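Predict both folds.
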Amino acid sequence: MFFFFAHATFFFIFVSIDYYQQPNTKMKSTKKNILSGYSGKIGSSGLYKRELNGQDIIQSCPERKGGRKAKEPRKENKSFAHAVRFASGIQSNPELLALYEAASTGGSCNAVSMAVKDYLKPAVIAKVVTTGYRGHIGYRIKIRVENVVPVKSVKVSLEDPGGNPIETGFAIRQKNSCDWVYTTRQTNPQYKNSVLIIESLDLPGHKVTWTRIF
């Protein structure tokens, strides 16, 4: 065994000079040599030897399968399958179908494809305006939520610095469909360091949460 690996190491040093001068290090073909009949990894060189059509082929070791990267496509495929199932369901709901048709641009971008996109792409709470809030009743918190279609709801909660609830309610959607307004109903004398929590819920049922400390 020692004699074999000693010769294998000598051979690797010999072919490395020519091997690493090549611009493409993926594969190198050699004539018959001391490693003839041997297949597998060459020591700790990072190279792998196999035989193809009577020639010895030396190439970089193949990457392992089944690792983290190999599992990610399966997770994406599962999410896509759920998205297709959701999109198929809207066809039996005239109200939802009309909503996604209004967002489509025609051609391949139809209501079903928009529903798939809505499932896979989460909403974005893009802007929240709280300038001038001093803990008083009647203040209008303005919220912009960007999404494929208008989200189902926007929930607003206010908590004092200790995490105790002050008020919770739902914002009202405005005419442009992406803007929402919540009007405060309770006084908040300790508004400094109080917490504003906004939670949007889209039609597929995904939630997005946004938080601000005053």
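Second protein follows, with its predicted structure tokens after the sequence.
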Amino acid sequence: MRYEEQIVVMRAVEIRRALDRIASEILEKNTDIQNVYLVGIRTGGAHLAERLRRRLTKSEGEVPGFGIVDIGLYRDDVFSGSDSSLPVVGTTEIHDDLTGKDVVLVDDVIFTGRTIRAAMDAVIDFGRPGRIELAVLIDRGLREFPIHPDSVGRIIPTNRDERVVVELTEEGFEEDCVLITPKAGHNDSEEPMLAAHGQIETEVPPEPKPAKKAKKSSAKAKTATKKSTQSSKATSSKTKKTTQKTGAKPARKSTKKPAKAVN
């Protein structure tokens, strides 16, 4: 049986509702919108941060701060490996002092937590924020760093043989969606992945019919009775043969009368 190589776990309407909810949570935690500074992690996080800024502006009538951070030089593996593995460094666009600001880091997916750790290092280079919050569209679990988002669009349990892909219209896609696909070279795990996300039903072997069970039990009982009868006959025959061989005869009851006394 063949399955599709990817499954859709969120569509445009679900992404829109998730961002509405995240925006509401940001407002609940930050009463002073003018002190809020949204920082999107390039690339997907930057687009989502811009959408959140529009929502907050529409709701409060005030425009929060906005910036984009690239973590290329802050990765913990940036200088490991050969020269061919050096990262492509993008542009960080933060033009304000972040000291005392309520910074909200925004990303599309949180996985191990290493990207968020690198983004926090990059943010601190622009001042000492009053606090840093984290808002993500997807939390796929499997954390390697003790980092947890403050606002989450959806939690989607995954395994390491899967990829979570967020497609946004800002990147040229026809519509927004979130996909889960197996990593290259891990097609064997495709069926378990689809079952885990509710795309296929787990096959359950049919239960044996009661009539067949009863038939089998009856047949077994007949066989056991037959074997028992054969065993009894064999034992009787063996006893008879043993008696004939030894010449032993069964004892007879005496019929002699007692002798009369002679006078």
